[in-house]
């Protein structure tokens, strides 16, 4: 995980413990197990305790074996056991490199499978499967995967040890659904695991399994491995518990229902528990119970992308801009309503209702009672609704026969939608926003329930409305902006600078002087080495330090808290945070399309001074524009032509008012303007170009200016605006760089400038003799684009330009006889940074 991305990634004490749990979906095959082993062994200062689930699908296979055994089908048992044996063998062979280690492990596995087979045959003979035997059989899945992981760790030279879960996790002994005795477990875990950890041994523990009465082995219910991890984390006072899963983290909702669902970077424990209860499948509802009142953060992180931070579940309350942080939909529900006047003021009706359902083993997902006490409604899984009705009719037989109760109404085809968030407490209007969003999308609310904790509001809706309901509520609470993307806050705009060169540093200097109500907040700086990021905004001190640091030529990653990453990685990592109206400002002169695409995909706006992205091949630029459109993002690029001059702005104004631009001409190179002015005054080329570089006019490689390529890019950007369909290769370019100087390293080129002095003096001499003035000129029409050196007469408008002056001439339908002319300095940090700032301010709330 990036060192600066979350608080949890701060350096930990040497003695700190990490608990890792790998879910079954992650442990699918040998390569997945190898990957898990790599994660366990990746260097960190803490000691690691590992909990594993059974390999993907193995628990179901073991349950099936138990069932076949119960009905006496030994053939099916044997086939399934052999299949499981082969699968585990394949993993063993895929994770171990030496024949000897493989042989030993395969032997161990064979013993375990032989015992499994014998046991299942015993069950088949008796045709009796007790809960105790079922648990014993099913626990084998986790035990086997723990054996595999231990062998894999040993094979990599680590010190690892299998620790039997039944000896560690003391429970209430309920087969199939045991719950840990936390105090007893705390004691045993510390006694057993602390000495191992002190000796730097990596303990590996089968999840889902615990110890019951008289040495019996029990299981903790489906999803119980999460519980094993949190129990161990609690007992060891771990610095964190990481649940490695096949999902990127806890999402704002089910992404299959709402494609714009986001990873929630941080949830409070109460929110996560509520979500788990209301059907977010990622976490077992009981998993967080051991952590009540103690602060051990739990991270749900993607196994496939171990660098991603996933979701932190902790006692913190962050993301306070979001009163609602997630919503959950549970489909396949039935609404059961018990109605009748006989309920009025009669104590115990609710208690009897729930007792009846509890005895029938039916779990109730939502309860609501009218304040008139005339009815109680509850949601149960639709497939249990007939059973629920029968149980209630039996319980209330007397009241029904006396007509004190009208009967049980059962509506199937229902779904529940619950919104969850700590910020709902005390924030008026949340329910009304939710109901309005639902009604605006035509969703009828059948019943409503709100806990007095105000942590959630749940509604019952028709199942067919689930998708529309989820989308509208997700939109209403801007959940597609959580953890990244743009939160349309009226008082904040978050800026990430890509490139901290001359323009970047000048922008950082002038930004605090902005006379706007909302000053853009610089949250991130990216250079070639990595990035510096703080979601709250980098402090003025940090920014000053970064400017000084970059000015001295050092990389950002040599600053404290900076993170090593490529530009696209940096954008992707920053985009996981909840930023307000984020903008990526590209101040490099590099091929940055991959980073820009990442930013657009996270709904960021883009400001470009870099010309390369928009002068890329047409297909790529069109795809970029389509991506921006799809994400409602804007790409502003005023400074790509004419630096701070209002070139794009004027073009937009012409077109918006119905004009049509027929051609664009002019001088758009500050460097070449300056150079030709100075050479015209008789200065040598080498001195003039040296000054242009020192004053910040040139591109990082001045040959981009001298070769005409910088002007060609600008010409292409302009030409494409007016309908040119070609690429950079279709622009006719005259290079002013002699052949011999074109491919040498830039440092060598800069040290040999004097060798070109004569050539330039001759060029200038010829022009002077002809009474002409040299200018590097562009001409762009919808069908042709050309850039090159011209010797113009002194009367020509371009001849009057001085220094870095640019001139852009728009010939339009309206300005046909007398074209629209924009003139002024077109290069240099001051004017360019001001132009970039203008673009940023266009995106900033007024
Ligand atoms: N200098 C000027 O007058 C004007 C410049 N521009 C454009 O502004 C951009 C920046 O110009 P300068 O600041 O003068 O250049 P510069 O060379 O001083 O700064 C560019 C910075 O970007 C960094 N960088 C390069 N590739 C990167 C990457 N892949 N990821 C992260 N960082 C990267 C470099 O390390 C450097 O610090 C250029 O595209 C230039 O064409 C536009 C108008 C005027
Ligand atoms: N190097 C460029 C800078 C602006 O785009 C120039 O000289 O014009």
Which molecules are bound besides the chains? Answer: 1,4-dihydronicotinamide adenine dinucleotide, ligand LTNE7NMQ
Could you tell me how far the N terminus lies from the C terminus, measured between alpha carbons in angstroms?
A: 37 Å
What structural category characterises the helix and strand content? alpha/beta
User: And the CATH topology of the largest domain?
Assistant: Carbamate kinase
Q: Rg, please?
A: 35 Å
Q: How is the biggest beta sheet arranged? A: 8 strands, mixed
Side by side, the strands of the main sheet go 3-4-2-1-7-9-10-8
Low-confidence stretches: 1-14
- The CATH homologous superfamily of the largest domain: Acetylglutamate kinase-like
Mean pLDDT: 92
How many H/I helical runs? Answer: 28
The figure for the number of domains is: 4
| CATH class descriptor name of the largest domain | Alpha Beta
- By DSSP, the count of extended strands is 29
- The percentage of residues in β strands lies in 15-25%
Shape-level CATH architecture of the largest domain: 3-Layer(aba) Sandwich
Binned, the helix content reads 25-40%
Instruction: Categorize the overall geometry.
Output: elongated
